[in-house]
Specification:
This protein has 353 residues and is mainly beta. It contains four helices and 23 strands. A hairpin with a 2-residue loop joins strand 7 and strand 8.
């Protein structure tokens, strides 16, 4: 098991002791020095603690933005303005301009699948439009509902006048795109001066920062939805995150990418201070093992016993004694121990630094 191998590696350089308590320990200290057993100095000490012990494993990931999607322009004309990559566009902002007329971002979950005007049947897309018009300061007499009324038409015309659009009182997909919220421009597929007859115009993302991990399927036990993780950002800063999505379909890597298969893991980031880099490599520390409310000591406090197993050197007052222990989980340079007479607060010997 990985735990056992790592633990043995951590104590490979410690003394090998037989049984016999203090006499055996002091004999080991005195060997080759000519000193008497009672003359051996007391070791440096560390405290036995009771705590949750967490082991972690680091995997690579990419710092990026949530929810990338394509935005199409549904019209024709000459592109006269495009946004810069990385720009954040909010409600009422232009995603691009064709023939100097903006395609405007409004918030909503229902795409604009039909032209909205006085002759349409009631629907949630009408309510979406009215809610956005009110949020942008139009239609004081407008009732926000699913009915496209005369008040709706007047509010649309007022908005169109301010945005330099034909004052038709109707709205189509060349004028408005409904998206969930503010977006960040990831890439632009058209150029100023280009003639367009419709199609993909740009790719956008949400404004929330996430980390994406392509996790080896052999390590999928590390990824549990809702689990907390630590992310080391470019430059060394560490931030907290939470796993929000774990893929269920394995993807096969090419031989050039190292082969094998992976699952996608998405991690949300808490707080700010993650910078604006996109697709930046990061290191993600995921919990691989947890032992709750256990006694722990530093790994270097373990002594390998000649008869097998491990012990610790208890330091009590001016005396020491060797106690055999059973080891368990490890993490953060500490190891779980159990044995007769052990308790939190006791002191154990460790190598002097």
């Amino acid at each position: 098991m990985r735990r056992k191998g790592s633990l043995l590696a951590g104590v490979a350089a410690v003394a090998v002791l037989g049984g016999g308590g203090v006499a055996a320990l002091n004999a080991y200290r005195a060997e080759g020095t000519g000193a008497t057993p009672t003359a051996a100095p007391l070791p440096a000490t560390a405290e036995i603690t009771r705590e949750d012990l967490v082991d972690s494993q680091s995997v690579g990931g990419r710092l990026t933005y949530s929810g990338e999607r394509e935005v199409a322009y549904n019209g024709s004309g000459t592109v006269t303005a495009v946004p810069a990559e990385g720009k954040v566009i909010k409600r009422g902002g232009a995603l691009l301009k064709v023939d100097r007329r903006p395609m405007v971002l409004m918030y909503g979950k229902v795409p604009l699948y039909r032209e909205l005007n006085s002759g349409v049947t009631d629907g949630p897309d009408v309510e979406q439009l009215e809610r956005n018009l009110r949020a942008l300061g139009y239609g004081d007499d407008l009732t926000v509902d699913e009915d496209f009324t005369y008040a709706t038409r007047l509010a649309v015309q007022e908005w169109q006048e301010d945005r330099g659009l034909p004052e038709t009182g109707s709205v189509d997909a060349s004028q408005v795109v409904f998206l969930d919220g503010p977006v960040r421009v990831a890439s632009v597929a058209v150029q100023v001066g280009q003639r367009t007859g419709g199609g993909r115009a740009l790719n956008v993302t949400g404004t929330s920062r996430i980390v994406q991990v392509e996790l080896d399927t052999s390590d999928q036990g590390l990824a549990r939805k809702g689990a907390k993780v630590s992310i080391e950002l470019p430059g060394g800063k560490t931030v907290k995150g939470k796993i929000v999505r774990v893929g269920t379909v394995a993807q096969t890597r090419s031989e050039q990418e190292g082969g094998g298969s992976t699952i996608d893991v998405e991690i949300s980031l808490g707080g700010k201070g993650t910078g604006r880099l996109d697709q930046a490599p990061v290191s993600v520390s995921m919990e691989s093992e947890r032992a709750e409310d256990v006694l722990t000591v530093p790994v270097e406090a373990l002594l390998a016993l000649r008869e097998g197993g491990f012990g610790v050197e208890l330091v009590e007052g001016g005396a020491t004694r060797l106690v055999g222990v059973k080891t368990g989980a490890y993490g953060g340079g500490r190891v779980e121990i159990s044995g007769d007479g052990l308790d939190a607060g006791m002191k154990v010997g460790v190598p002097r630094t």
